[in-house]
iodotyrosine deiodinase
Amino acid sequence: MALLSVLTPVLALLLCLVVGYMLLKSRHAESTSGQEAKVDSRPWVDQDLQDDTEHAQREDGREGDDWVDSSEKQDIPHVPYSATRYPEETMVERSKEFYSLLNQRRTVRRISPEPVPREVIDTVIRTAGTAPSGAHTEPWTFVVVSDPEIKHQIRQIVEEEEEVNYRQRMGDKWVKDLAKFRTNWIKDYLDVAPYLILIFKQTYGILANNKKKTHYYNEISVSIACGILLAALQNVGLVTVTSTPLNCGPQLRLLLKRPTNEKLLMLLPVGYPAADATVPQLKRKPLEDIVVHI
Ligand SMILES: Cc1cc2nc3c(=O)[nH]c(=O)nc-3n(C[C@H](O)[C@H](O)[C@H](O)COP(=O)(O)O)c2cc1C
């Protein structure tokens, strides 16, 4: 009896602690599920389209303190627009000519060291910069490298990572899928091509006052710009290797002294095709396999 009367306050205390803990836990669970529901109910981006867009919103829906306040009214004038109107036969002819030009585009892995006019490179990049972009944020930086020493350092970084990719990171299936292209981790075009264009996506913008600005759909926007760049290169008779060097982004960003909001999307060696260049004899899907008219 004496033992029971000593234990009763201890047991009561223990019981209080257990009940208190359970109450706290259930409240925490309620509040987190509430937050999730709030976030889920107003996603700012389609789940399928998620890229590295960085966006800071406070509870009141406005941006965090280091982000630009987009609730401020920004008015720009609207001006008349008209496009060149071609007769239908001319449209058909032009569409075929453009298709024929781009149908000759190939990934060429043997590039000539012959110099290319710098003005051409500047103009094809200006052309790429006409791409549409989420909220007209133009989230791209084109780094053009012609310095042989920097090109060589880029090659060293890419080859080192690519060797690990080929030997370890890629599965057997990936290596087998690439066999027909006869590629490996040796990328001499990175030394040889007169220009390397490295395209960075800006995951957010940094304004003159150091505030951050959301770059909506930056990866899609920059990919469209890259597509236009490929077409512009084809238009002037230059070739490239579309490449997305796996695991090289951070090292190349540091080498090229790009800020942390920029991430490497694509690396394009650019030049004339080498006289002895060959390409795999690939077939493109016919129209009926790629289009659905409804
Ligand atoms: C996103 C992307 C990444 C690519 N990466 C490489 C690459 O790392 N190395 C390479 O030799 N080719 C690369 N390619 C080129 C493809 O192998 C090539 O486009 C494909 O085989 C079709 O050939 P074509 O470009 O001559 O039409 C890449 C293409 C794309 C679109």
User: Anything to note?
Assistant: DSSP finds nine helices and six strands in the chain. Residues 106-107, 109, 181, 183, 241-244, 279, 282 surround flavin mononucleotide (CB under 6 Å). Confidence is low (pLDDT under 50) at residues 29-41.
